[in-house]
TrEMBL record:
Residues 5-110 form the DUF8042 domain. InterPro entries: DUF8042. This is DUF8042 domain-containing protein. It comes from Heliorestis acidaminivorans.
Length: 119
């Protein structure tokens, strides 16, 4: 149980960093600084994948967080497609209007779960 508690704590610390990175990526894309945006995006995707894996593993242990991590996989595929075709508007919209609100929702759910869970 301690590992679950520690992982939840790390997720709670990390999601706000991802949300902040979202803002940075959006700002860079909107000011046509694609290379800077891509540098942040690589780390962003890695962090997002870690959060998804951690949440999935916690849920696989039987802890119900009511978080559907599969949705992010769809967004990651769409990000990849946006990068391939150079559609930075789509990329910007996905990150700003889909992923960022999703991360905020996940953060609320993880905080509520951690608060209510009996350790």
């Amino acid at each position: 149980m301690k590992i679950v508690q520690e992982t939840l704590g790390t997720i709670i610390e990390y999601i706000p960093k991802l949300i902040s990175a979202t803002d940075q990526i959006v700002e860079k894309l909107q000011s046509e600084k694609q290379q800077e945006a891509f540098a942040i995006l690589v780390q962003y995707i890695e962090g997002l994948q870690w959060v998804v894996k951690a949440l999935t593993e916690i849920q696989n242990l039987g802890h119900e967080l009511n978080i559907d991590t599969d949705e992010v996989n769809t967004f990651l595929l769409e990000i990849e497609e946006g990068l391939k075709i150079g559609d930075y508007v789509m990329l910007n919209d996905l990150i700003e209007y889909e992923i960022s609100p999703l991360l905020s929702d996940w953060l609320k759910k993880v905080i509520a779960f951690e608060k209510d869970f009996s350790w």
